[in-house]
UniProtKB/TrEMBL annotation:
Matches recorded under Pfam families: BPD_transp_1
Compartments it resides in: Cell membrane
Keywords: Cell membrane, Membrane, Transmembrane, Transmembrane helix, Transport
Protein name: ABC transporter permease
Gene source species: Natrinema versiforme
Domain ABC transmembrane type-1: 71-258
Cellular component terms (Gene Ontology): plasma membrane
Gene3D superfamilies given in the database record: MetI-like
Length: 267
């Protein structure tokens, strides 16, 4: 009787340990972000106890002219990067998932290679390339540099959606007389639209939060991430955690939208 009773607790103990493990992992991952958010609401110049709630640092971040200038530069980079990365990544995803050609697997490996390259070295290489070719530094080189890194990520995201579309649907449309343009416009692209939008959102978030590549190529332009780095190295201000928290809130919202659309595209 006692042995049977002990065995009945084993599944509950196992489940409890599993959820405890998950809570510890989540706490480990979220502690730095939570610390940043808590510090952004503290009235002190540096985070310390006792905690006194304030929204002053958020107000200073929103009204700061240097922050507004950094936001403007970041938008002028992120929007073109999002458009270019989405177009290039979607074209690459369609080429890989809808066509058979020699070297198809090598194409995938080479296309995805920038994702696995250390960003600081990728930025250094692009900086040397911009110098050698005479392109120089500024908004345009930063757009090109980020597009090289982000396009493969968009290709990966869109490929997931494209692989979920039955090729027989396109064959059926072709048998009914649809030409290639019609198949793309009326069949394939609408079916992978959620994946394309998800890829675009990922591209914007990655471009917005990028530091290493843009710091090498931006020239005299100041973006959000380089502004934060400058404040951290030249004199800390509580506006930094407030601005970083605002970026986190916006990025989290966009990523949730992307995840929801990606899940919907897989159904």
């Amino acid at each position: 009787m006692s042995t049977r009773s002990n065995r009945s607790w084993l599944p509950r103990l196992s489940t409890g340990l599993w959820y405890g493990y998950l809570v510890l992992i989540i706490a480990f991952l979220m502690t730095p972000l939570l610390s940043l958010i808590i510090a952004s609401f503290d009235s002190g110049q540096t985070f310390s106890l006792p905690f006194e709630f304030t929204l002053e640092w958020y107000r200073n971040a929103v009204t700061s002219t240097s922050v507004q200038s950094a936001v403007d530069s970041t938008i002028r980079i992120s929007v073109p990067v999002t458009i270019l990365s989405t177009v290039i990544g979607t074209a690459g995803a369609i080429a890989y998932t809808r066509y058979s050609f020699r070297g198809r697997e090598y194409f995938k490996i080479v296309a995805l290679l920038p994702i696995f390259f250390p960003l600081i070295l990728l930025g250094l290489g692009m900086s040397m390339w911009a110098s050698v070719t005479g392109l120089g530094y500024g908004i345009v080189p930063a757009i090109i540099g980020e597009t090289v890194w982000i396009s493969p990520i968009v290709m990966f995201v869109v490929s997931i959606s494209a692989l979920g579309v039955d090729p027989n649907i396109e064959e059926a449309a072709r048998d009914l007389g649809a030409d290639t343009l019609t198949i793309y416009k009326d069949v394939l692209l609408p079916l992978i639209a959620n994946g394309i939008v998800s890829g675009a959102i990922f591209a914007f978030v990655l471009s917005w939060n990028n530091y290493y590549i843009v710091s090498y190529l931006k020239g005299s332009e100041i973006t959000i991430t380089t502004w934060i780095h400058g404040r951290m190295t030249q004199g800390f201000t509580p506006v930094v955690p407030a601005l970083a928290s605002l970026i986190f809130y916006a990025s989290l919202l966009l990523l949730l939208v992307a995840i929801v659309m990606e899940v919907r595209s897989e159904r």
